[in-house]
Amino acid sequence: MTRRFCWALVFLWGLSGPATAQVTAQFTEDRVAEDRDFGLPPTAEMRVDGHGSPTPLLIPGARTVRTPELREQLARPLEERPLLLDVLGGAGHESIPGAIWLADAGRGSSFDDEVQALLGRTLSFLARGDMARAMVFFCAGVNCWLSYNAALRAVRLGYTRVGWYRGGIDAWSGAGGALAPMRVTWRRPEIR
User: From 67, 131, 170, 179, which residue has the greatest number of CB atoms within 10 Å?
Assistant: First the structure.
């Protein structure tokens, strides 16, 4: 259930009553349900359309990261933290503090397109050429393929410690995590 649809239901049913409580509970559950199983098998293929739909639980070649683990990783000394890479598109949004915004890095048509080339150069710079540099990709939540695709791109580039934070911004904020404006971004790739 999308956020926009949830709020439309709340408006239609009024601001009080059992129907509103049920919709609000479902909305909250969807935001933090990073382990929700949609029955989709993992795939090593990029999803080129329908990015705002349910994702698998696992991802080939990378690790699925949950909120408690990400919190623990981000509490480490700076030099031990993973690169935190937000790939959600759009005009801008608040994100997990410390995230680098690689807008639309999960879009594109193949592992041989311009997005892949730009991501390769960007990750090489950010990781200082270290193919074992830990990195975690994320986007909106469990109904967002952009981070799944971007993590697959990193695996294809040869990075060995790739994480996919499936719950994304929704799970982070739903679990009480703070959000902040992003300060570092890349030049948005040209999507064909």
Answer: 170
**pTM reported for the whole predicted model:** 0.83
Q: Which amino acid is present at 119?
A: L
Condensed to tens digits (0 to 9), the pLDDT of residues 47-98 reads 999 999 999 999 999 999 999 999 999 999 999 999 999 999 988 899 999 9
Under a CB-based contact definition with an 8 Å cutoff, are residues 137 and 166 in contact?
A: no
DSSP the chain: --HHHHHHHHHHH-SSSHHHHHHHHHHHHHHH-TT----PPP-SSPP-S--SS---S--TTSEEE-HHHHHHHHTS-GGGSPEEEE---SS--EESTT-EE-TTTT-SS-TTSHHHHHHHHHHHHHTTT-TT--EEEE-SSTT--HHHHHHHHHHHHT-SSEEEETTHHHHHHHTT---EE--EE-PPPPP-
